[in-house]
Amino acid sequence: MTQEKDKFGETTKVKRLKVIEEEKRDREVESVEIRALSKTITLAQVKEVCKKYLYLPDDNIIDFVLAVYLSQYSPGERLWAFVIGDPSVGKTEILRGLCAEDTLFKESITAHTLFSGLRIGGEDPSLFAIIDGKVFIVKDFTSVLSLRPEDQAIIFAQLRGGHDGFYDASTGADVKGYHYKTNFTFLAGVTPAIDNHWSVRRALGERFISWRIKGVDRGELNRRSNQNSSRKEKMRRDIRFHLSAFIQRYKDSYKDISRDCEFIEKIYALADVVTHARSFVFHDRYTREIARKPGLEGPARFLLQLLQLANSLAMVRGKSKITA
After folding, report:
1. Strand ranges for 199-268 from DSSP E
2. Is the distance from CB of 87 to CB of 218 less than 8 angstroms?
3. Alpha-carbon distance 275 to 290, whole Å?
4. What is the mean pLDDT of residues 118-134?
């Protein structure tokens, strides 16, 4: 069966190949431009571009997401984080802007996204097969909250396993099993609906830190939305371009920042208080009375998260020492 030709004698396949080549050249040009900008770009420039398009009640959200992203290049703890905010308050555009060279971006995830248990043409389509060394960004984690409890349990088990750096699985159809290295950073957008899902907090809460978008001016949101309606593509390119350049600047030069003793003591105390306070209390399902005294969460994991976040924030902000 022959393909139709247009007036220039080109088939659909040929035109598609030309488009692919043009997109490849555009990416190569952009990559060169990003590397050039990365030599001089500052945090202030990144924020200026983001605030040109987005309404940010607190622009420290830029510091936070960059610090989380750059933790991927640290020899220490990889950070996992939620950006919590109501729908249409800008969190999606910020997460889209982080689609740099080492990013895996998904609109949402299902029980078969991370591990599928299949081999197609000898290839493993599971995200775990390619996730090591990447920053995994999920635009809408809220969709997970509406899945069946069985599917939620599968996703949470996969994430818990992946957080430890290795994930092993087996299926009846594949006696060799599946073995993945999973050192990755995780960033996800979610609405405040997550506050009502205690099962999620209990299953994953200690692995995530969070940034909560507050103090939103709805009138200003409307004005920004109107301004961006005719320049959405330019907005997304500019934000991605500048965030990518900033990430490029620091990804190959990540370093540990010195910390003073007072800061260390305060972090120890904070980790102890928070893990005491968030330890899960078990209630009787009928009377709602406390069924048993909770076992306290150990402070070690949260302490490492705080230290990593402090180090990454100091680097993002150009600090030479972390103080209390």
Report:
1. 209-212, 258-259
2. no
3. 19
4. 86
Q: What 3 state SS string does 108-132 have?
A: CCCCCCCCCCCCECCECCCHHHCCC
Residue 105: helix, strand or coil by DSSP?
strand
Cβ atoms within 10 Å, residue 250: 18
Question: Residue 245 to residues 34, 42, 54, 66, 183: CA-CA distances in angstroms?
Answer: 5, 9, 19, 11, 23
Tens of pLDDT, residue by residue over 49-76, are 999 999 999 999 999 999 999 999 998 8
| SS3 state of residue 1 | coil
> pTM surpassing 0.70?
yes
Strand pairing partners for 210?
82
Cα 56 to Cα 284: distance, rounded to the nearest angstrom: 43
Q: Residues of 258-296 as b/e, b for ≥16 C-beta within 10 angstroms?
A: ebeeebeeebeeebeeebeeeeeeeeeeeeeeeeeeeee
State both tokens at 238: 């500019």
Helix, strand, or coil (residue 209): strand
- pLDDT(289) > 80: no
Looking at this protein, which amino acid is placed at residue 72? Q
Max CA distance (Å), the chain: 78
Tokens 């960004």, residue located: 137
Residues linked to residue 258 through DSSP beta bridges, in sequence order: 321
Distance CA 45, CA 243 (A): 10
